[in-house]
Design goal:
heterodimer, A: 525 residues, alpha/beta, FAD/NAD(P)-binding domain, eight-stranded mixed β-sheet, seven-stranded mixed β-sheet, 16 helices, disordered N terminus, B: 443 residues, alpha+beta, six-stranded mixed β-sheet, four-stranded mixed β-sheet, 14 helices, disordered C terminus
Chain lengths: 525, 443
């Protein structure tokens, strides 16, 4: 990786665009801009690109990335940037999603069908999928569109509204009514309406709540999150691309550099340089941690909005109302990450092979209980989690015969009431492994090393405010033309020359590339 | 005579209002009530000899002034006496008084937090703005957005225009306000836990949401949506208890020639040729009318008093899915005298308003957590009010007219289980008792 990242700026270099942060959205944006002929520099604070998708050696010989699978990476982006030529396989076999059961049968959701449930549930799943796919298809075009500003009389903006209205209308009266009814329903109500099996309900609601401060009983945005995640062809099924998520990051880096973008690592940005005169403000460059300044026509931030405006720009350059709207963004993370180095493949009770995406949440109440603790700033007694063993799919992640277990653990509060300490981290890590051991009894003896990253750790290691996956909660008031706030929702900001291109913008988080793509389109407009 | 222009099922206050308006418009109406009393939740009942309770609903503010005027309810005996203030009992000796008098309210806020005292102006101004849009829609029929009927399209355009007129910034603030949690919204303004809890307590009662649930912020509109006699945001108790509202509506109905029958439960709505044509009562009587209006909830209407085969396809299933989740219980207590509360300078304020018992939003949320999981809360959110002598019904003795009622987060799964009922009563009482030096109270 590093040979392509070590081009040294001579101080006088001038770029068309500087992108702050080489997370996947920053790389997507860089690749599009470079492809269109811009001179682009990507500045990354850590020593490798990829952000939360970057692979790290957490124990000698064992590698993992915080994001451990992808589910709805935009196929448009993959083909535009010719990622296949750079090593990314879009058509990777999808993983079965397995809801683990302690005493009866595991529930497996794979390729549009169910096993391990009653035939009633299996039939209901067909109805459920048909309806959800219908709605997901209806919304799909909008994830790759720039959301218009309300009140705009621009024809293209009005067309976007008309398009959305038409798409909803085209579904027919019954579907339209049903969409309006369920769009803001808590995941729990939706699942209860369709299914009986508790594990199935917990497993399917998982994708509605993970990543945000939400649980199955929370109304408003869980169903939209589910639909967002079903937008691409895999219909929300997860996959591990060749080389893991890091493989995708590498293909993006390769595509960007092939088009002429420079990626500089170990180059953390301290400040965005703002020029002010009688005509207003203008972002004209950045200052690195070591004092070096680099000039560019525009600065594009792939870091989260709070960090961008409050740390890199500084409130002295912002209008107070705007500052307040950025300050009140809700971006406290509630997902922790567990990486375990194992001396063999863990054996889960009555599961042939742990090669799927495994959910440990016996029912929706278990998820809700874990959330109840976390929302009060406490550690959950019984954490719930999503597990992947990436080394099953990519042997290079661990020494021969050994394995990496990667788990998203919910709900672990960013703001722990007593404050985060090493012993608090150990405590929640122990509880998580206890849960694991209930389903994989021999796992404790297999553990060589474990690493538990709380949201605070994620914030520190990955420079993402609140340790939040999505840079800001996926909630109604932080979506669409309100993400991150209305003056910065079209990828530009109140400061001319400063743009946003990552998960803090429409359409939001997860590894999709959509925000990076949309931002590049707006910049090139 | 068993032939009318309109039959209204259920003499709750909406049924009464509907019947009164139809009667006033010249229709020959009959209002059918299953109980032997009218008013539904808006009733005054003598549950204990000599004590008249507002046995279910307990305070009035949201009743629309237009109805008051149109039906001339004052002439039919309705007089709402405003609260002068309310008191929130926090943990220990913490107390927060909210007064309708602005200066007193400001001074009291300052005692808790000077910052919050300043923020209150912003809070009130913002809420009042949000309420304006809703106020405009309250007396209109919501449109069916899937319909192409001119009336629906016109109404939809009306809503769109009202929203559009707000301007960009306001639209976003509205979306935010109506979708975030009460706790998140209050955090934007206040720092004192007690103040925040007191503010949230006005509306959270009766919802199946916690103060941390997305979308619960709208409950704060209870501070500004209603009014007493035009005084925005005021709360009050009707003279004679909540039943006085129903009595005045019934009087208006009868004045306009409408008929009111109690002990007349409807067994089934009669449908002929896909049109409702009347009802069959529980006693077997048949009443016919061109219009049948149900004041029962949608679920009861479609799943209990209608034959599934009479309904268009899908309606039964939808009504069955309709979510109705009770979250509050109520205790009515007859006291031999005014209890003395700790931490109050005197009983002036509680004589003139409501009481809430909650120390923080977190406490309220924890009570909701218990409800969610079907458990009783050890520390339920409790709200009450006294019937003060000044608004006692004139036929009761002056000395003993006081009462507490409490609503609290509690599981609805076990409603009706006598022993459990006592358990929740005592949980609620114990939470009050820590603030009360009770004098010979009896339940």
């Amino acid at each position: 990786m590093n040979q392509q990242t070590q081009r040294v700026s001579d101080g006088s270099a001038h770029y068309d665009s500087i992108i702050i942060g080489a997370g996947h959205n920053g790389l997507v944006c860089a690749a599009y801009l470079a492809k269109s002929g811009q001179r682009v520099l990507v500045l990354e604070a850590s020593d490798t690109p990829g952000g939360l998708g970057a692979s790290r050696e957490f124990h000698p010989g064992f590698h993992a990335s915080v994001a451990h699978s992808i589910s709805h990476f935009s196929q448009n982006v993959a083909s535009d940037l010719n990622l296949a030529a750079h090593g990314f396989e879009a058509t990777t076999e999808t993983l079965p999603t397995i809801g683990l059961s302690a005493d009866s049968q595991h529930v497996v959701v794979h390729k549009g069908s169910l096993s391990g449930t009653s035939s009633d549930d299996a039939d209901a799943y067909q109805d459920y999928s048909r309806l959800m796919h219908r709605f997901a298809d209806m919304l799909k075009p909008f994830w790759l569109k720039t959301m218009p500003r309300i009140g705009s009389s621009n024809l293209a903006d009005l067309m976007t509204f008309a398009h959305l209205g038409l798409n909803i209308r085209r579904m027919g009266k019954e579907n339209m009514r049903e969409f309006m009814r369920i769009a803001t329903l808590p995941a729990r109500d939706l699942m209860d309406e369709y299914f009986d099996n508790d594990i199935l309900k917990a497993t399917l609601s998982w994708d509605g709540v993970i990543g945000s401060k939400m649980a199955p009983r929370s109304p408003n945005s869980a169903v939209l999150a589910l639909l967002y995640r079903m937008a691409e062809e895999s219909r929300g099924a997860h996959a591990i691309p060749a080389g893991g998520v890091n493989g995708l990051v590498e293909s993006l880096s390769a595509s960007a550099t092939a088009s002429g973008a420079e990626i500089r690592c170990n180059a953390g940005v301290d400040r965005v340089l703002i020029d002010g005169n009688g005509d207003g403000l203008l972002a004209k460059g950045v200052q690195l941690a070591d004092g070096e300044t680099i000039k560019a026509d525009r600065i594009i931030s792939a870091t989260d909005p709070r960090r961008t405006f409050l740390k890199l720009v500084g409130v002295e350059h912002l209008e107070i109302g705007f500052t307040n709207r950025i300050r009140r963004l809700r971006c406290d993370g509630f997902v922790a990450k567990l990486h375990v180095a194992l001396n063999g493949l863990p054996e889960f009770d009555r599961l042939d092979r742990a090669d799927g995406r495994i959910i440990i949440a016996p029912d929706m109440d278990a998820i809700e209980f874990a959330y109840d603790h976390a929302k009060h700033g406490e550690l959950p007694e019984k954490p719930v989690m999503e597990i992947v063993i990436p080394s099953v799919h990519d042997a290079s992640l661990a020494p021969a015969g050994q394995h990496v277990l990667s788990a998203h653990v919910m709900y672990v509060p960013y703001r722990l009431k007593e404050g985060w300490t090493d012993s608090a981290r150990d405590q929640i890590c122990e509880r998580t492994i206890d849960m694991l051991a209930q389903y994989a009894p021999g796992i404790r003896e297999q553990i060589l090393h474990q690493e538990f990253l709380t949201p605070v750790d994620l914030e520190q290691h990955y420079r993402v405010t609140g340790g939040h996956w999505h840079h800001a909660d996926f909630k109604m008031d932080q979506m669409l033309m309100m993400r991150p706030t209305y003056e910065a929702a079209q990828y530009s900001t109140p400061i001319p020359g400063l743009h946003l291109c990552a998960a803090g913008c429409h359409p939001g988080g997860d590894i999709t590339g959509a925000a990076g793509h949309n931002a590049a389109r707006e910049i090139l407009r | 005579m068993n032939n009318y222009d309109a039959i209204i099922i259920g003499a709750g206050h909406n049924g009464l209002t509907n019947a009164a308006y139809l009667a006033k418009a010249g229709l020959n109406v009959v209002l059918l009530e299953k109980n032997n009393f009218i008013g539904g939740a808006s009733c005054s009942q003598e549950l204990h000899e000599g004590w008249m309770y507002s046995s279910y609903s307990y305070v009035c503010s949201m009743m629309r002034q237009a109805i008051h005027r149109d039906l001339d309810l004052a002439r039919h005996g309705l007089l709402i006496v405003p609260y002068l203030g309310t008191v929130n009992f926090g943990d220990g000796d913490e107390r927060f008084f909210s007064y309708h008098d602005e200066e007193a309210a400001h001074l009291e806020l300052k005692r808790h937090s000077p910052r919050d005292a300043d923020a209150m102006h912003r809070f009130q101004a913002d809420l009042t703005r949000y309420a304006q849009l809703i106020r405009k829609t309250l007396m209109r029929t919501p449109p069916d957005p899937t319909s192409f009927r001119p009336r629906d399209i016109k109404e939809l355009l009306f809503f769109a225009q009202q929203l559009w007129n707000l301007g960009e910034k306001e639209i976003y603030e509205y979306v935010r306000f109506f979708t975030i949690s009460a706790a998140e919204f209050l955090d934007d303004y206040f720092e004192s836990d007690l103040v925040k809890a007191a503010m949230a307590s006005a509306g959270i009662i009766g919802t199946a949401l916690g103060v941390y649930s997305p979308g619960s912020s709208y409950i704060l509109l209870h501070h500004v949506m209603g009014d007493v006699d035009g005084s925005i945001g005021a709360w009050g108790l009707p003279r004679g208890g909540m039943g006085a509202i129903s009595d005045s509506l019934a009087s208006a109905l009868q004045q306009h020639g409408g008929e009111l029958r109690t002990n007349a439960g409807v067994k089934q709505v009669l449908v002929e040729n896909r049109k409702a044509v009347g009802v069959v009562l529980e006693n077997g009587d048949e009443i016919r009318a061109g219009i049948v209006v149900s004041n029962l909830d949608a679920k009861r209407t479609f799943t209990r008093i209608m034959d599934r085969n009479d309904l268009p396809e899908g309606i039964y299933e939808k009504a069955d899915k309709f979510k109705i989740r009770g979250s509050s219980g109520k205790v009515n207590i007859a006291l031999s005298g005014m209890p003395k509360f700790t931490g109050l300078p005197d009983n002036r304020y509680i004589n003139c308003g409501g009481l809430t018992f909650t120390g923080s939003l977190e406490t309220m949320e924890r009570a909701y957590d218990c409800w969610k999981h079907g458990r009783f809360s050890d520390d339920p959110f409790t709200k009450g009010s006294f019937r003060r002598p000044g608004i006692r019904p004139s036929h009761l003795p002056a000395s003993t007219g006081c009462r507490i009622l409490c609503s609290t987060a509690r599981p609805n799964l076990v409603l009706g289980n006598g022993r459990r009922k006592i358990a929740i009563s005592s949980a609620k009482l114990s939470s009050i008792k820590s603030h009360v030096t009770a004098r010979g109270s009896r339940t």
